Amino acid sequence: MLRSQVLEQIIELEKKYLTKTDYVMPSGLYLGIEGNGNGNYFCSPVDGVTFGRTGVDGIHFAILTDFGVGKQLDECPIVVVTPMSNPWIKIVARNIKDFFTILIGREDEMILIDSFSNEDDYRKSRAEQIKAYSSQDLDEEELSRRAFVEAFQQLNYPQIPDSYLYIMKIEIERANAVAVSIPNNIGVMPFSSDGIIKSSITKREFHLKKFNTMMSMGEAERQIVFDKEPLETKLAMIRQCQMDIPEAKIAVWFVEQLNNLGFPVEAERLQQLITQQESTEVNLIDNTNWGAPYIQVIFRGGEDT
Q1: Is the pLDDT assigned to residue 295 strictly greater than 70?
Q2: Distance separating alpha carbons of residues 254 and 246, to the nearest angstrom
Q3: What is the pLDDT of residue 194?
Q4: pLDDT of 245-269, one tens digit each?
Q5: Residue 180 and residue 238 in contact, taking contact as beta carbons nearer than 8 Å
Q6: How confident is the model at residue 84 (pLDDT cuts 50, 70, 90)?
Q7: Residues whose CB falls within 8 Å of the CB of residue 238, separated by 6 or more in sequence, listed in order
Q8: Could you tell me whether strands 60-64 and 48-53 are parallel, antiparallel, or unpaired per DSSP bridges?
Q9: What is the pTM (predicted TM-score) of this model?
Q10: Angle between helices 231-243 and 248-261 (to 10 degrees)
Q11: Tens-digit pLDDT profile for residues 20-58
Q12: Residue ranges of the domains in the chain?
């Protein structure tokens, strides 16, 4: 069972401040880990454990295990997945404590979800957000939310004086730490031959043209090329496939690769995403590209619309 002690603490705290309109959560998110943490959208990282949803546009937050590099969920970085936007995924916190400090302690969910072209744009939006908070009607729901924030601040979580500068810093840290960088993606952390993270790394760039060429090959030829790549590059290909899959059968092929590489949980999540995708009512913007994150989708029985 996947567990985060920090998440459980916040959920228990939140229960004390629920109002009669309990569909409005004091944290602003629907919190909890269901099953293996599958994010339910094809662009949800297979090594991510989804723990929070906004209920709007499929936006969700996940604990990124980096294919097992992060062993303790409470110590892993946090990503936001926004299926209807580009980029679809980005790092927003070093760990889940920092995440809740920004979300609840600083009441700055905007920086966790939106992308800003520059610091001035963020500062302007943040000032408007603070003004809106201060002018809200003090009804039962708002009073409960404010009491929840005050209670959270007593937990002595790490202080983050400036959300924008914090996220800029962790983005640089991530870029410097990954073994393989991928445009508009989170990259892949380094492994050694025994699967343990290295202290020093050799940087590699992900070559999209080479990836696309490989995807157009027959299965046998593709396997030969894939098998020659380092582990980090293989995992980078899996990240890229979640961004833009040319054919459904290739996604199934990547499930097999994950199992062969020793990542059964990640393989299970990807298979679930494929199954969900196939059972989804899909209105394609470009029906030649199955599974791409920019399709308009409605999940049967899903909570997002």
Answers
A1: no
A2: 12
A3: 53
A4: 657 789 999 999 999 999 999 999 9
A5: no
A6: confident
A7: 46, 254, 257, 258, 266, 270
A8: antiparallel
A9: 0.86
A10: 150
A11: 665 668 999 999 999 999 998 888 999 999 999 999 999
A12: 5-298
Q: Could you give the CA distance from residue 229 to residue 225 in angstroms, rounded to a whole number? A: 7
Burial track 261-291 (b if 16+ CB lie within 10 A, e otherwise):
bebebbbbbbbbbbebbeebeeeeeeeeebb
Q: What is the pLDDT of residue 243?
A: 85
CA atoms of 232 and 254, how far apart (whole Å): 14
E strands in 183-274: 204-205
Residue carrying structure tokens 């992060």: 70
Q: Tell me, rounded to whole angstroms, the distance of Cα 231 from its chain centroid.
A: 21
Q: What is the dihedral of CA 40, 66, 89, 130, to 10 degrees?
A: 100
Q: With a cut of 50, say whether residue 153 has pLDDT above it.
A: yes
The sign of the torsion formed by the CA atoms of 22, 27, 28, 32 equals negative
User: 186, 171 in Cβ contact below 8 A?
Assistant: no
At position 264, the amino acid (one-letter code) is P
Backbone angles phi, psi at 250, to 5 degrees: -70, -35
End-to-end CA distance of the chain: 29
Residue 225: what residue type? V
Q: Is residue 190 reached through a cis peptide bond, with omega within 30 degrees of 0 on the bond before it?
A: no
Distance CA 39, CA 272 (A): 10
Please tell me the distance from the alpha carbon of residue 5 to that of residue 22, in angstroms, as a whole number.
Answer: 23
Phi, psi of 204 (to 5 degrees): -130, 145
Lowest mean pLDDT among 2-11, 82-91, 170-179, 212-221: 82-91
Which DSSP category does 89 fall into?
A: E
Residue 300 has pLDDT above 50, yes or no: no
Bridge-partner residues for 205, per DSSP?
181
Among candidate residues 63, 121, 66, the one with its CA nearest the CA of residue 92: 63
Candidates 233, 232, 234, 240; CA nearest to 185 is: 240
What is the token pair recorded at 172?
Answer: 């640089």
Confidence of residue 289 (pLDDT cuts 50, 70, 90): very low
